[in-house]
Specification:
Blueprint lengths: L1 H63 L1 H4 L3 H4 L2 H24 L3 H12 L2 H5 L1 H4 L7 H12 L6
Helix pairs in contact: 1-4, 4-5, 5-8
């Protein structure tokens, strides 16, 4: 009977050891999953912060240069202000490209479209059309939509 009791204890110990190994593996998997979720959350927060910072810089420039933000076509035709305006628009489009890369929501896309629409006349111009290839597809898609929109045609 002593041998029989020892055998049951060894079997019980093996079973407990198997459960402990399985539990360890499960806990390790859960820990890795939690770290993954946390990293993804931090990345999302960082992307949103980047987008907000870029948009804030655009708004700051727009406040400093309302003449470029809400362009008067007659003033833009003057060579000096035209270069400043072209650079303003280029910076705006670059910023918006980065915003859209970091924030993939319909709301942000609508905000970008509304801001780009202010510059539809310039975006239709031959000067800009030569440069459009430098912009990302998502921005050029918005530009095309704005340029095709009858409401933005003067």
């Amino acid at each position: 009977m002593n041998d029989f009791g020892a055998l049951k204890i060894l079997e019980l110990a093996a079973i407990i050891e198997g459960f402990a190994a399985a539990l360890t593996a499960i806990l390790a998997f859960v820990g890795i999953a939690m770290v993954y979720v946390q990293i993804r959350g931090q990345r999302a927060i960082q992307r949103e912060a980047t987008a907000m910072s870029l948009f804030r810089e655009y708004l700051k420039e727009a406040l400093e240069r309302p003449d470029l933000h809400n362009p008067d076509p007659d003033q833009i035709k003057q060579r000096r202000s035209s270069i400043q305006y072209e650079l303003f628009v280029a910076n705006m489009l670059w910023s918006f490209d980065a915003v859209l890369q970091n924030m993939r929501s319909r709301d942000w896309r609508d905000v970008v479209r509304d801001e780009v629409a202010r510059h539809a006349e310039y975006l239709r111009s031959a000067e800009f059309q030569k440069q459009r290839r430098y912009y990302a597809p998502e921005i050029t898609e918005i530009i095309d939509a704005v340029c095709a929109d009858k409401r933005t045609q003067g």
